[in-house]
Automatic annotation (TrEMBL):
GO MF: nicotianamine synthase activity
Lineage: Eukaryota, Viridiplantae, Streptophyta, Embryophyta, Tracheophyta
Record GO biological process: nicotianamine biosynthetic process
Top-rank taxon, per record: Eukaryota
InterPro entries to which the protein is assigned, alphabetical: Nicotian_synth, SAM-dependent_MTases_sf
Reactions performed catalytically: 3 S-adenosyl-L-methionine = nicotianamine + 3 S-methyl-5'-thioadenosine + 3 H(+)
Organism the protein comes from: Herrania umbratica
Enzyme Commission designation: 2.5.1.43
Role: Synthesizes nicotianamine, a polyamine which serves as a sensor for the physiological iron status within the plant, and/or might be involved in the transport of iron.
UniProt keywords, alphabetically: S-adenosyl-L-methionine, Transferase
Pfam families reported in the protein's UniProt record: NAS
Family listed: Belongs to the nicotianamine synthase (NAS)-like family.
Gene that specifies this protein: LOC110422089
Listed name of the protein: Nicotianamine synthase
């Protein structure tokens, strides 16, 4: 490990040791301060390559991602309960501390999807939606205002809290659905969705994530889009990393690595074979290999770097 990366890893390790000693991850001044420091540390500019870290640091990173996932779930559950206690919950959704980050991330994901898909989808699935399905809510209210959203989570209590948020809304209560299920047990139903979002914390380890992706590749509709959240650099201490080359069965269309306060990288891919360019335009179904080599970067949304993995549809945009 290069010397200039050692202070960063030391700071993250120090914060992990303090966080690992917490008896309760529920929101409090102390808990909030520690996780805020961790996030700010991981957002600092860094070209760190997590694959080259020592085994000890790799093990620490895995444990840190797990505890961050637990804390995130508790935080979302806490605020979902509080927001859901109001007469009109969606009027108070912005009190969630990271709401503005979700606005930016969701806008980014919608912009990437819009670039590839010329017709708005009728049905979208979000896998791992949790108790506070902000991505689905923001997309449904600001971007995909006539689309139906099917939210999948393995935890029935998470779905109960999430459902409470939209049950009183005359529009979303008709377009937002919640399914308590392990996605690995959902097969033919996945073919109903033109777009599927995979939450960052579905599959905490590389092998688990790959297992879920293989399942989606088997059962998603041909030509359907898959949006995944990954991480790069020091942000990979907060979330699992997806290598685009691991998306077997999918054509990787673009990869975006933010450089602002948005933590997650975004990958958009399309399931092979490719019978359509848009939802209603027939084309040659010859499959194309995924392209994992680096391409020139540019900055279309003022968030960071986007790598165009395949630019075969540029003439349609």
């Amino acid at each position: 490990m290069e010397s200039h990366q050692e202070p960063l890893v030391a700071n993250i390790t120090n914060l992990y040791e303090k966080i690992s000693m917490l008896v309760d991850l529920s929101p409090s001044n102390h808990v909030n301060t520690l996780f805020t420091k961790l996030v700010l540390t991981c957002l600092s500019p860094s070209d760190i390559d997590i694959t080259k870290l020592s085994e000890r640091v790799q093990e620490m990173r895995s444990r840190l991602i797990k505890v961050c996932g637990e804390a995130e779930g508790i935080l979302e559950g806490h605020f979902s309960t509080f927001i859901g206690s109001h007469a009109n919950p969606l009027d108070h959704i912005s009190i969630f501390p990271y709401y503005s980050n979700y606005l930016k991330l969701t806008h980014l994901e919608f912009s990437m999807l819009q670039k590839e898909c010329t017709t708005l989808p009728n049905q979208v699935a979000f896998i791992g939606s949790g108790p506070l399905p902000l991505t689905s809510i923001i997309l449904a209210t600001k971007h995909l205002i006539s689309t139906s959203f099917h939210n999948y989570d393995i935890d029935p209590s998470a779905n109960a809290k999430a459902s409470q948020l939209v049950s009183s809304d005359p529009d979303l209560s008709k377009r937002m659905f919640f399914h308590t299920a392990d996605v690995m047990n959902v097969s033919s139903g996945l073919k109903e969705y033109e777009v599927i979002f995979l939450a960052a914390l579905v599959g905490m380890h590389k092998e688990e994530k790959a297992h879920v992706i293989r399942h989606l590749a088997e059962y998603m509709a041909p030509g359907a889009f898959l949006l995944l959240r990954s991480a790069q650099g020091a942000r990979a201490f907060l979330y699992p990393v997806i290598d685009p080359c691991d998306l077997q069965g999918f054509e990787v269309l673009s990869v975006f690595h933010p450089t602002d306060e948005v933590i997650n990288s975004v990958i958009i891919a399309r399931k092979y074979p490719r019978p359509i360019l848009s939802w209603n335009q027939e084309v040659d179904s010859t499959t194309l290999p995924s392209k994992c080599s680096d391409m020139p970067c540019f900055n279309p949304l003022n968030h960071g770097n986007i790598i165009e993995e395949l630019a075969i549809d540029e003439q349609l945009l």
